[in-house]
Amino acid sequence: MQVNRIPILKLYNCLLVSIQFELDDKTALQFQEDLLKKIHATGASGVVIDLTSVEVIDSFIAKILGDVINMSKLMGAKVVLTGIQPAVAITLVELGIELQGVQTALDLEKGLEQLKLELGD
Amino acid sequence: MQVNRIPILKLYNCLLVSIQFELDDKTALQFQEDLLKKIHATGASGVVIDLTSVEVIDSFIAKILGDVINMSKLMGAKVVLTGIQPAVAITLVELGIELQGVQTALDLEKGLEQLKLELGD
Questions:
Q1: What's the Rg (C-alpha) of chain A?
Q2: Which residues form the STAS domain (chains A, B) (predicted)?
């Protein structure tokens, strides 16, 4: 099976990712690896992951997402999740996955602005 | 066969697209449709298409790309192509596809700046 790869855009010192289709497990794992490699390669200090187009999330994908956020933090990059839809927020809380300490914002623009403020540029 | 879809990010009044894998014909056609719909839906006045990760391009994909740029212009959006690699530039010129009148820039940041200047914001 061909694994989809999620494009990761570099804009100044931030990486932008927009997830616009339902993630399957392999794609999510590939994304995790790709994002960490890209943080390393670019030396990005911030990451915005936009979930605006994600309408459903399951426990495995939620765990991967939580993991990649923690891993990115360990590597020194701040992560902001944006555009979490009502159904996704409900699922996350009901699954007990509250993504503790993860910053969120309403949309990509606000997420980037939040990062800019925090990174002080 | 599942068609890959290329995520299109909206940032302020621009759309950002980063093509990070070789496009097959179906994906290219799907991208054309998705981009035009997104321009319509968001009222974006600029589009940056980043080809940094594209190492090879064939005549069909080059034509689709040229077409989508012209279509976007017709809809009122300025398009900037960024990150065209040497091999892609060589192929385009050798195929006689010179993407006349298409603006280009070295990378995503410079493309966005060019658009901002032109759109006057």
A1: 13
A2: 15-115
Asked if B115 is an interface residue toward chain A (Cβ–Cβ < 8 A), one would say no
Give the E-state strand segments of chain B in sequence order.
8-11, 14-18, 46-50, 78-82, 103-105
Query: Which residue in A has a C-alpha nearest to residue B112's C-alpha?
Result: A11
Q: Do the chains contact at B16 and A16, CB–CB below 8 Å?
A: yes
pLDDT tens digits, A6-30: 889 999 899 999 998 888 899 999 9
% chain B with pLDDT above 90: 59
Model pLDDT, residue A93: 87
The reported pLDDT for the residue numbered B30 is 94
Q: Say whether pTM exceeds 0.95.
A: no
Contact in structure between A14 and A112 (CB atoms under 8 Å):
yes
C-beta of residue B68 within 8 angstroms of C-beta of residue B23:
no
Say which residue the tokens 């990070």 belong to: B20
Using a CB–CB cutoff of 8 Å, tell me whether B106 touches chain A. no
State which H helix or E strand residue A10 sits in.
Answer: strand A8-11
- If you ran DSSP here, which 8-state letter would residue A53 be given? T
Residue A103 scores a pLDDT above 80: yes
**CA–CA separation, A108 vs B11, rounded Å?**
7
Percentage of chain B modeled with pLDDT above 70: 97
Q: Which two tokens stand for residue B52?
A: 């940094």
Model ipTM? 0.80
- Going by C-alpha positions, the residue among A36, A40, A1, A41 that lies closest to residue A17 is A36
- The C-alpha torsion from B5 through B7 and B8 to B10, rounded to 10°, is 150
